[in-house]
UniProtKB/TrEMBL annotation:
Superkingdom, natural source: Bacteria
Entry's transmembrane regions: 12-31, 43-60, 72-89, 95-111, 118-136, 142-159, 188-213, 263-285
Name this protein carries in UniProt: DUF4129 domain-containing protein
Keywords of this entry: Membrane, Transmembrane, Transmembrane helix
């Protein structure tokens, strides 16, 4: 019991640390929103409520295991954060949206394994913020804090990507330790990069750049005086006079009755709009078919999707042997597929041999099942996926018995062909694969 409680506590602490890191990665965005939108008479600074709602969302991950529950919890937590921050005006609606986004990231933090995209986006935000904040008077006091937080995010991104690459290269699991020699050799280079990043953050890069710039100016100035024959230098131009700022106009706060009427009008308008939207979508769903009905079914399937905590996805034939021939061929195929039309990238006529056509059949058969409403579980093997689809087909109310028998037979034959294409050495007969394609109606 103590071991179980200790494991849950360690998991919660790791998720909280991940929430704080994600908050730090987009700190410039939160600073801009608070500086320009939050009023001065707030109960709590809005920027400090964001990690709180994110960590609260991480605690609710077990109860909010479906997409619609996660969205609902994010909206509620975002509203609570907005109230704590004193956001009661119409212009402060982005504060509610930002808090809701942080809460949603917290509820889904347990299902994210690869965070390299977050780090890349965060580094891009810091790069743009350091350029913009230095030129905006209202944001200039935050430049020093952004320098330190950006350096910390850079170190965390380097450590995370380095650890992930080491585990992938050494075929180590998430909980198994890395080899000692490999870890020691790699940490030496990581510490070197961190030292360089710390030196750049402390101003060494700016000092070095200014030194080079002044040296270049002195050198070219000396060359100019040498060829012109005069040793006198022109006096520097005086800076243009700064225009005095106009005093801000006085604003009068609206009365309490006016504020209550404004909120009542907004609430009534939102309620009427929600009712009209609901009945409009309901009428469209009942009286139209085809693409619109499939879109609504896909949206409902997305909202009902259950979050998978331990996602150990099945990987088909992963290879780690590097060759230049395969790399060049892969790059050529990638650009050929990118430049081709979407309808021509994955066609039956473009497949070579029975092996590729069998894989084509498996992919399109699985896509067809997903279009019918089947929720795919990536951690299942192909055989387990077949069994899961068979169980799903058996539970459908409007399925006919003869269709179930033919679908089961075709699925079993497809599984046999797929395993033979993956593990067998002999090439499959294209006539049998074509017959299976007609049977599956793909």
């Amino acid at each position: 019991m103590n071991a179980l409680a200790s494991g849950s506590l360690i998991t919660a602490l790791r998720l909280w640390l991940s929430c704080i890191v994600e908050w730090l990665l987009f700190l410039p965005v939160w600073i801009v929103l608070q500086k320009y939108l939050q009023s001065g008479d707030a109960l709590l600074p809005w920027i400090y409520t964001l990690p709180l709602v994110s960590m609260t969302g991480a605690l609710l991950r077990q109860k909010c295991n479906r997409k619609w529950k996660q969205l609902l919890a994010a909206l509620i937590l975002g509203a609570v954060a907005g109230v704590l921050a004193g956001a009661f005006s119409l212009k402060e609606i982005p504060l509610f949206a930002g808090a809701a986004i942080c809460a949603y990231l917290g509820t889904t933090a347990a299902g994210r394994d690869n965070r390299i995209r977050f780090y890349v986006a965060g580094m891009a935000v810091y790069f743009a913020a350091t350029i913009a904040f230095a030129r905006i008077p209202l944001l200039q006091p935050s430049v020093a804090g952004l320098t330190w937080s950006g350096s910390l995010c850079l170190i965390l991104a380097l450590l995370d990507s380095n650890t992930s690459h080491l585990r992938y290269s050494s075929f180590s699991g998430a909980g198994s330790p890395l080899p000692a020699g490999l870890r020691r050799h790699n940490r030496l280079f990581v510490l070197l990069f961190i030292a360089v990043a710390a030196a750049l953050a402390a101003g060494a890069g700016k000092a070095l750049g200014m030194l080079i710039w002044h040296a270049a100016q002195a050198f070219f100035g000396w060359l100019g005086r040498l060829f012109s024959g005069s040793g006198e230098t022109e006096p520097p131009e005086a800076p243009p006079p700064v225009m005095p700022e106009m005093p801000a106009a006085e604003t009068q706060e609206p009365g309490l009755l006016s504020m209550l009427l404004d909120y009542a009008f907004y609430a009534l308008g939102a309620a009427v709009l929600a009712v009209v939207l609901y009945y409009g979508l309901r009428w469209l769903y009942r009286n139209t078919g085809g693409l619109w009905r499939r879109f609504i079914d896909s949206l409902l399937s997305l909202l009902r999707r259950e979050a998978i905590q331990n996602n150990t996805a099945y990987r088909d034939e992963e290879k780690s042997i590097f060759t230049w021939e395969k790399t060049v061929q892969g790059v050529r195929d990638y650009w050929r597929n990118r430049l081709a039309y979407p309808s021509r990238r994955d066609r039956w006529d473009g497949m070579n041999g029975g092996r590729e056509r069998t894989r084509w059949l498996y992919r399109h058969w699985l896509n067809a099942k997903r279009a019918e409403g089947y929720l795919q579980r990536n951690y299942l093997t192909p055989q387990e996926t077949m069994a899961d689809i068979a169980e799903w087909n058996a539970g459908r109310k409007r399925q006919r018995k003869n269709e179930a028998a033919s679908a089961a037979a075709a699925s079993a034959e497809l599984l046999h062909f797929y395993n033979q294409a993956r593990y067998g050495e002999a090439e499959l007969s294209e006539s049998e694969v074509l017959r299976l394609k007609e049977k599956l109606k793909l």
